[in-house]
Specification:
Helix content: 25-40%
CATH class of the largest domain: Alpha Beta
Number of domains: 2
Mean pLDDT: 94
Largest sheet: 9 strands, mixed
Order of helices and strands: EEHEEEHEHEHEEHEHEHEHEHEEHHH
CATH architecture of the largest domain: 3-Layer(aba) Sandwich
Structural class: alpha/beta
Strand content: 15-25%
Distance between the termini: 14 Å
Low-confidence stretches: none
Pfam family, one: Glycos_transf_1
Protein name: Glycosyltransferase
CATH topology of the largest domain: Rossmann fold
InterPro entries: Glyco_trans_1 (IPR001296)
């Protein structure tokens, strides 16, 4: 028996494609499409941008999903930050209008609108529904932006009287804060991934893959610098999936790789999975993370993660199923890894597939039923 109405409120970026169809950030849209099988109606309130949709965008494929647009907000300029004040009434109106008849409501944080939506749900809206917050950021971030700090404090104190799903398992974790794996894989992905992982061999030369925004925070400069210290004969291909304002700069810096490096831009999910399946190592020396789903996607295909020890990454990745490194030691570790024997690498690869099984949509639904609802 399906539940009645799920309302999701997020800052997920949506666009209109060339056919005037609404599309959105692929990872979130996949999740919404899955959840729609278990509700009669799903309403997703999210930001609508009037620009070209990136290739990673996907459409809603279930007829019981309704998208409600809100204006984009935020930015780096003073005016853009002040401008959000004029958008607050529009956002609140869209939320209040669509709360009617909702049986479950999910608010996805952290985001600037959490500063006024948390008080709205805490004090002003009658609670005739199950309300939960999905906190997708780094729950233990040491120096978060002020708005994130306020939202995290609000949730830790349970002022909103709701369950909060977070990345990782932490000391002194409040009872209302539940450790959850953000879903990104289907049972079919797991089955296909195991087949690929079982046949993957770790012979030189190796293929490397990065997926994410191309910027310093994600560790792209560290990856390029580390690759300089590896003989070209040991490198088959290097895939960079994603985009950013420093794209041309990174292309220049990696020119020593010649035709061995590919900058793909944003790609649709299926193509990302194929590149991960074709790779031996996934590289992410990031400065700050919650838990990037793409690590689980890499593990699904037996691709060994070489990732930084930040956020909750260490709660899933260790030196048995990958390489957990400090960012300043990334180059040393990568140079060492490519000299390891095939048997050791194969063993690490096979253990990584166990991590992937935690991040299925089916596991996510089961945990929601058993702990949130």
């Amino acid at each position: 028996m399906r539940r009645k109405k799920l309302l999701i409120i997020s800052h997920t970026q949506h666009y209109k494609d060339k056919n005037n169809q609404v599309v959105g950030w692929g990872a979130t849209i996949n999740e919404v499409n899955f959840l729609a099988d278990y509700w009669e109606e799903v309403v997703h309130i999210g930001c609508l941008y009037h620009s070209e949709a990136p290739k990673s965008s996907l459409p809603y494929i279930k007829t019981n999903i309704r998208f409600v647009p809100i204006p984009p907000y935020g930015g780096i300029t003073v005016w853009s930050k002040i401008g959000v004040l004029f958008k607050i009434p529009i956002i609140i109106n869209r939320v209040v209008t669509n709360v009617k008849d909702a049986t479950e409501i999910q608010l996805r944080l952290p985001t600037s609108m959490g500063l006024f939506l948390l008080p709205l749900f805490s004090f002003f809206l009658p609670r005739k529904y199950t309300f939960w917050v999905k906190y997708a950021g780094n729950w233990q971030q040491q120096n978060p932006p002020l708005s994130y700090r306020i939202q995290r404090w609000w949730l830790k104190k349970n002022i909103a009287k709701c369950k909060v799903t977070i990345n990782g398992f932490w000391d002194n974790q409040p009872k209302n804060c539940l450790s959850f794996e953000n879903p990104c894989l289907s049972e079919q992905d797991i089955s296909r991934g195991k087949e690929i992982a079982n046949t993957k061999s770790f012979h030189l030369p190796f293929t490397f893959c990065f997926v994410g925004r191309l910027n310093e925070a994600k560790g792209v400069p560290e990856i390029i610098e580390a690759l300089k210290h590896i003989p070209l004969s040991k490198i088959n291909k290097v895939h960079f999936v994603g985009d950013g304002k420093n794209l041309e700069k990174y292309k220049q810096l990696s020119s020593f790789l010649g035709d061995k490096v590919n900058f793909h831009g944003f790609l649709e999910s299926g193509r990302v999975h194929q590149l991960l399946a074709d790779s031996h190592f996934f590289l992410l020396p990031s400065k700050s993370e919650g838990f990037p789903k793409v690590i689980a996607e890499a593990c699904c295909y037996g691709t060994i993660p070489i990732v930084s020890n930040v956020g909750s990454i260490s709660h899933y990745i260790n030196n048995q199923n990958g390489y957990l490194v400090e960012t300043d030691l990334f180059s040393n570790v990568l140079c060492s890894v490519v000299t390891e024997n095939e048997t050791l690498l194969k063993n690490i690869s096979s253990k990584g597939t166990n991590v992937a099984e935690l991040f299925t949509f089916e596991n996510y639904k089961s945990k929601l039923e058993n702990t949130v609802f």
